[in-house]
Structure formats: C-alpha cells, structure tokens
Amino acid sequence: MKSSILKGTLIYTLANTIIKLGGLVFLPIMTRILTTEEFGIIGILSPITTIFTIVLGLGFYNVILKKYVDLKDNKQELETFKFTVVIFILFLNLLVLVVFLIPCFRGVIEKIFKVDYLLVLISMIIAMVNSLNNMALSLFRIEKKYFKVAIGSLISFFTNYILAIYFISKLHLGIFGNQFANLCAVITLLIFLYVEYFKDIHIKFSKNYLVYSIYNGVPLIFIELTDQLVNFSDRYILAVFNISYGLIGAYTLAYTGSRILSVITGSFINAWTAELYLDIRNEKINRNLELFFSILAFFCIGASLFSPEAISLLFPKHYLLAIQYMPVVLTSAIVQSLYALDYYFHYFEKSKYIVVFTFLALVINVSLNLILIPIFKSNAVYIAGLTTLIALTTRAIIEFVIINRCFKIKFRYYKFVIYFLLAFNPILIYLTRRPIGIVSILLKLLYILICIGIIIKDDKNWRKHLIYLRQRIIGRVN
Q1: Considering the chain, what is the average pLDDT of its residues?
Q2: Is residue 182 pLDDT above 90, yes or no?
Q3: How many C-beta atoms surround the C-beta of residue 171 within 10 A?
Q4: pLDDT at 1 over 70
Q5: How many C-beta neighbours within 10 Å does residue 222 have?
Q6: Non-local CB neighbours of 450 within 8 Å, separated by 6+ positions
Q7: Taking phi first (over 0 means left), then psi (-120 to 50 degrees means alpha), and beta for anything else, what does residue 102 get?
C-alpha cells in the first residue's frame, strides 16, 4: 500500500511539473499561430473562465475535503453527499447557461466583457465544466488516487494543446480554435473523472448536506475570487479603456512567462509549510523564507536581463513588446510568493485577516488603474503591471507588520528590501531595453555578478543553504 501511494505521489508531482513547464514549452508554438491581438483576447478570456469557475463551484471542492473525512467510514452517506453536491452544481450551471442564452443578454455581455459574445459563452461553458472537474479532483486527491488525478490532468493538458494547434493552424479557426480546444480538453477530463466518481453513487438528494455545503463553501468564494481579481483585473480595465488587444497580448505573454517561477514557488512552500507548522517560532525557518526570496530574486534578475534575447529567439517579432513588461511582471511574481506569510495567520487561526488583506490589495490595484491609466494612456499596460506590483507589495508589508506585532515573529526586513531593489530598479530596466549585442550581454553578466556578491555577502553558509533549497524545491521528485 505504501509503495503504491509513493508511486502515485511521484507520478502526481511529475505530472504537475510537466503541465507547468509544458505550458511554457508550447508557448512559442502558440504565439506563432496566434497574433498578438488574439493572444490579448485570450488574456481577457482566461480570467473570465477562472473567475466563473470559482463562482459556479461555490467552494464545494473545498467542502468535499472536510466531509470526506467525516463520512469515509459510512460509504452510503458519502455517496449521498457526492450525489447531492454534484447534482446541485450541475443544476446551477444549467440555470446560468439558460440565462446566458437569452437573446437580450447578448449585447449586455459584450458591453461588459468587451469580447465577442460567442467567445464569452464558450469560456463560461468551460468554467461550468471546470467547476464539476474540481470537485472530482478534490475527492480523488483526498482519497490519495494521485495516479488517476495525474493521468487525467495530463490527458486534458495534451488534448488542449494538440487540438488547439490543429484547430488554429489547419482549420484556421483563430481564437475560436483555442477556446474549442480548451472546451474539448475539459470535457475529456470530465468524462475520465466522472466514470469513477459515479461508480458507486447513491442516488439520493440530501437537503442537509446541501445546506452544509453552501454554508461552508460560499464564504471561500470571496477569498479566492478577491485573490484572482488582484491578478486579472488589470487586463479587464485595459480593455475597458480601449487599449489595443495587441498590447494586452504582449502583456499576457510576459505574465504567462513569469509563471515559470510558480513551479519553484509551489514546491518550496509546500515543504516549508510543513516545517513551519512543526516549530513556527524557530528563527531558522523564518530565515529560510528570506533565503528562498533571495533565490527567486536571482531568477527574476536573470530572466529580466536576458528576456530580450529569449523573446527574440523564441517568439515572433510582433511579440517583442513583451520585453519591456518583463521586469515589473517578474518582480510581481516574486512578491506574490510571499503569500507564504498567509500560513502564519492560518496557524494562529486568524485566517479572516487574509480576506481583508486581499480585498485591500484589490482596492489599491483597481483604484490606481482607474486613476492612472486614463492619465498615462500611452503607457497604460506598464502602469497596469506597476499597480499590481504596488498592490501586492502593500499586502506583503501589512502582513509583515501584523505578524511582528501580533505573533511576535520578526524577519530581517532589510533583506527583502535589498532583494526587491536588486530585481526592480532603473539600472536593470535600462539594461533590459538596451539593443542586443556583446556589450549588452557583458553589462548584464556584470550586473548579475554584483547581485551574487551582494546576496551571499552576509551569508557565510550559502553553499549549505543552496543544498537546503534544492531539497525543498526538487527533492520530492527525486
């Protein structure tokens, strides 16, 4: 049994890594068959899908985790619960779909989302299927059926990209081809998962289980929704102010490229959180978070400096505009990794504060965008990236302050400031915008050497710390 679980866990981890890195591998292909304008529309549609997946799921995929623990020894009741939640979500989705199909809503939808009605409709259907898939995936994870989750995710991933390439390049469906491929992929995953989900289902609807699920699931919507809006609201606001989809497409490419840091971040924080909960006041554990932030900053510096060479080599010329957005987007990605601070609040059972922090970040982001984009319209996309960085940084600072005052846990804050300034400053921005050439490369290498010197200057045990990070980031895959 232990051997089976271990193999399943390894396959699950490997599948997640393949999917995260695979998306970046397919990115140069997608940018060659999609124009920047089409990629910009994807940058608008993706948030629509993500946000409606959260709303239509009602947080039930989290409730399943808790209820499984309560009912795992009562098979019939567990199957009744599974039937209740999935039937209700299915009914809700069909009701929303009917509303979206009402002719008078077509103009309203296009006016709100600034995108073709049919594209929004397809995105909505994708979100509906995703809301069902997420429940099954949550159940199989808690049941430790990692192999099934991994295989299903890989099937969906490759189905999506293979069909997208075929629909766009061979059938010339453009952005519609991308959305149809996505829809086919999530439906394939739905069939794969729900054959197992319904295998022993007990067809009985329970009002009590429904009330319990709504009561415990709906509040989670606001936490996740606010967090996603911080990430995605900028692109929607850019569309509202009629910023060209070509510019939004370049910005979306920069944002998508920055996701490579999430591969490193997720692996580290999963391992670090376990250590944190065992001994939260251990100063060494807090130092490890500082160390990890420094490594992320180093990756950010390298990626920002050599983004002109990488983008010029891998992507068509009309995507070169993405270069100027890389420093601000990558720095936002490393600041966002400080969501690790949320676990201090979870540990001390003060999770309600996280909602306040995230909502405040959203208000700052949206307010600054609404104020500054009309004023600096020629630099609107860069402003959107900068306001996101300001919002995320403000959130992190507030969390640092409260962790210090309420939980009496301190960090060496100057370290975070130094790493932040090394990753985002006028000199680095200047170097990223220099013409590609030998002199530019030498100057960039010099900057990196200076940064390495600064990072390891006060860390006599940096070799030992690098080994620690390697074990936390990739150790579980080996």
Answers
A1: 86
A2: yes
A3: 12
A4: no
A5: 14
A6: none
A7: beta
Q: How confident is the model at residue 2 (pLDDT cuts 50, 70, 90)?
A: very low
Q: Distance between the two ends of the chain, CA-based, in angstroms?
A: 20
Q: Taking residues 433-452, what's their average pLDDT?
A: 93
Tell which residue, 139, 147, 123, has the closest CA to residue 48: 123
Q: Which one-letter DSSP state was computed for residue 202?
A: -
Q: Residue 76: is its pLDDT beyond 90?
A: no
d(CA 302, CA 416): 18
Question: Would you tell me how many other CB atoms lie within 10 Å of the CB of residue 193?
Answer: 22
Q: Tokens 């319990």 map to which residue?
A: 212
Question: What is the mean pLDDT of the segment spanning 376-391?
Answer: 94
The two three-digit tokens of residue 254, written as one number? 């920069």
Q: How far is CA 197 from the centre of its chain?
A: 26
Nearest of 49, 43, 424, 50 to residue 254 by alpha carbon: 43
Helix (H) or strand (E) holding 377: none
- Nearest-angstrom CA–CA distance, 241 and 373: 8
Cβ burial of 213 (10 Å; 0-12, 13-18, 19+) is buried
What are the boundaries of each domain within the chain? 1-221, 243-475
Within 10 Å of residue 278's Cβ, how many Cβ atoms? Answer: 9
The CB density around residue 177, as the number of other CB atoms within 10 Å, is 22
What distance separates the 2 farthest-apart alpha carbons in the chain?
72
Report how far residue 149's alpha carbon sits from residue 153's, in angstroms, rounded to the nearest whole number: 6
Q: Report pLDDT for 477.
A: 40
CB distance 152 to 189 below 8 Å: yes
Instruction: Determine the average pLDDT of the residues in 306-323.
Output: 90
pLDDT surpasses 70 at 5: no
The length of the chain is: 478
Tell the burial category of 353 from Cβ atoms under 10 Å away from its Cβ (0-12, 13-18, 19+): middle
The confidence score (pLDDT) of residue 460 equals 60
Residues 266 and 476 sit within 8 Å (Cβ to Cβ): no
pTM: predicted TM-score of the whole model, two decimal places: 0.82
Say yes or no to pLDDT of 8 above 70.
Answer: no
156/134 Cα distance (integer angstroms): 13
| Residue 473, token pair as written in the block | 């980031």
